[in-house]
Amino acid sequence: MDNDASKIFATSGAYSESAWPFMTPPNETDLSNLKNRGAKLIVYHGTSDPVFSSDDTTDWYQRLSTANGGDASNFARFYTVAGMNHCSGGPAADQFDMLTPMVAWVENGQAPDRVIATARDASNALPNSEVPAEWGAGRTRPLCPYPKFARYTNGDVNSASSFACS
């Protein structure tokens, strides 16, 4: 990151504008065109992302909600992934499917109240070496739409069914 961060702001030859303005539009909370056409948006961010802070994404989602009367959940959902690095990895349940819940939301009006994530332990085809050995095989966790979070209720600590989004 120390070597490549400056490239985000770089311009040269055919690239007269840096990539940064595309990543941060001038009014990033005005998603009225998206909302008004009935589109849906799902955003997730690992809380241990060393590149971009999940706090910034949380702040954006809070401002998006404010810009939409205090609640944007009818067209946008934001999920934090505890312990996950940039897009994957970290001591986390970092394997999940956001496409299937998106399709159910768009095609059937079923907004995702939780998404199940699985830790890639040693038995996984692509194991995550940062998953602690003491975690149970196939540990799952619910990813909850912000501002909700997974709260242990009772039962097997390795099973998403033992947690509620509250």
TrEMBL record:
SUPFAM superfamilies: alpha/beta-Hydrolases. Its EC number is 3.1.1.102. It comes from the Bacteria. It is an enzyme of class 3 (hydrolase). InterPro entries: AB_hydrolase_fold (IPR029058), Tannase/feruloyl_esterase (IPR011118). GO terms for molecular function: carboxylic ester hydrolase activity; metal ion binding. Transmembrane segments: none annotated. Pfam families: Tannase. Keywords: Calcium, Disulfide bond, Hydrolase, Metal-binding, Serine esterase, Signal. Belongs to the tannase family. This is Mono(2-hydroxyethyl) terephthalate hydrolase. The lineage of its organism: Bacteria, Pseudomonadati, Pseudomonadota, Betaproteobacteria, Burkholderiales.
